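Readers outside the structure-tokenisation community will struggle with the description of the input data as it stands. What matters is that the chain and its backbone geometry are given together, residue for residue. For illustration, here is how one protein appears when written out as sequence plus structure tokens:

…
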Amino acid sequence: MIQITLIACPSIEPPRYRLTLLLLLICLNFTLPPAQGKAPAPVDLKSKLKRALAEGDADAAQKLLADPQAKQLRQADRLKYLYEVSAMKGDNKAAISTLNKLMALEPGKGEYLFRRAALYRGEKQYEKALDDYDTILALKAGRSPWALIERAAVFQAQGKNQQALMDLTEASAYKHVQFEAWREACNLCIKMGKHKEAVSFADKIIKQSPGDATFYLIRAREYAKMNNLAAASKDLRTAESIAPEDRAEINLVRKELLRELPAAGK
């Protein structure tokens, strides 16, 4: 409130103008109204929270969130910090509960669906995880190849390997996730006993990353299972030339799986 006390004064002549104005200002009594709403959270609190989480100190972050000053945080921000603390502590149920509250505040965010689906998967609540991945894949932003790869992992956990392979094959059409999709598909085909398909995916990986000996060894194993000893022997020699320091491991593979192969170089 502003209280103003006016002084009755005669007509103001130019020489007396400044003096009269000064008297009026002295008689003004200012009473500021109380601040409306919550004050912004101290920057120091936010920086401490970020530092604690970056250092993996969930206990310190939890103590900071229990501080009365934390109530000044935006509700969504506070929930995000609480989620990170729960996830860091491995408390999946608490993390899921916090994500549910966040999704009620900020609906339609694929990021929250991704995180919740991963938590459901960790809790072996596979149907709920699949529901979240299905929702992500139906978003207007377009199909997410990462959602396909993650959903494939859920299908594998359920023993639905063929559906998993379909998702991985679709995901491999997206260049930025091709390597991951091919790798997972190759490993799945090995698990399913699909040797020819495993070799096909290994071919793609080797073409993209020819300096990695790992998939030469994997392909050699699959060739051996297909009785293609010449191709298996060639892959073993290539792996040995790329990574001579791993010769002992390569020889172990040879002895374990490819007993009929000639020694490398012969």
Observations:
- The two ends are 98 Å apart (CA to CA).
- Confidence is low (pLDDT under 50) at residues 1-13, 15-39.
